[in-house]
């Protein structure tokens, strides 16, 4: 009988050690995971505490409540959105024929409508109606008088 008891004691100790290791691993995993999702120290500690106190159940709760995106993913997401926005901004339509044009174009390739003009001084493109170059401040000859004529 005593041999069997020793075996059970040994077995229980082993099981206990295994569970303790698993518990520690869970805390460690949770802490590492939350650190990739938030830079808030308080949230990081709370998540680790949740795993430490409640073990597997704490980790389950954490999995439900944790931020959906990691910091890296969120950064990628912002970059993609910005790229999308700038693409939309750079696409314009031709007032002459309605086809798609680019902000860098001076002329519509379809109907040859003048879209923009180049500055005499710095050669940068600007809107046809602008009386002065926004980049170098050079006034555009003729535009201000044209606008005045249109106003009266
Ligand atoms: Zn056109
Ligand atoms: Zn200019």
Task: Report on the architecture of this protein.
The protein is mainly alpha-helical and 152 residues long. The chain has 2 domains: 2-69, no CATH class; 86-151, no CATH class. It is 58% helix and 8% strand. The chain has 4 helices and 4 strands. The protein has helices at residues 2-35, 41-65, 71-90, 143-151; strands at 91-93, 100-102, 116-118, 125-127. The strands form 2 sheets. Strands 1-2 form a two-stranded antiparallel sheet. It has a two-stranded antiparallel sheet with strand order 3-4. α1 (2-35) crosses α2. One zinc ion binds next to loops.
Into which percentage range does the β-strand content fall?
Answer: 5-15%
Q: Please state the overall shape, judged from the principal axes of the Cα atoms.
A: rod-shaped
- Major sheet: 2 strands, antiparallel
N/C terminus separation: 114 Å
Strand order of the largest sheet: 1-2
Counting copies of identical and different chains, the oligomeric state is single chain
The residue-averaged pLDDT reads 86
Helix content: 55-70%
Radius of gyration (CA) equals 34 Å
> What ligands are attached or bound here?
zinc ion
Domain count: the total is: 2
Order of helices and strands: HHHEEEEH
How does the helix and strand content classify structurally?
mainly alpha
Number of strands: 4
């Amino acid at each position: 009988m005593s041999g069997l008891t020793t075996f059970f004691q040994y077995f229980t100790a082993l099981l206990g050690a295994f569970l303790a290791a698993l518990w520690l691993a869970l805390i460690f995993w949770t802490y590492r995971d939350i650190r990739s999702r938030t830079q808030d120290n308080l949230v990081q500690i709370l998540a680790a505490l949740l795993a430490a106190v409640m073990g597997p159940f704490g980790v389950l709760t954490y999995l439900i409540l944790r931020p959906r995106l990691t910091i890296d993913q969120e950064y990628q997401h912002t970059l993609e959105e910005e790229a999308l926005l700038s693409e939309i901004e750079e696409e314009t339509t031709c007032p002459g024929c309605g086809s798609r044009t680019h902000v860098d174009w001076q002329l519509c390739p379809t109907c040859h409508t003048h879209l923009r003009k180049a500055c005499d001084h710095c050669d940068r493109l600007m809107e046809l109606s602008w009386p002065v170059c926004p980049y170098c401040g050079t006034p555009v000859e003729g535009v201000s008088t044209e606008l005045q004529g249109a106003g009266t």
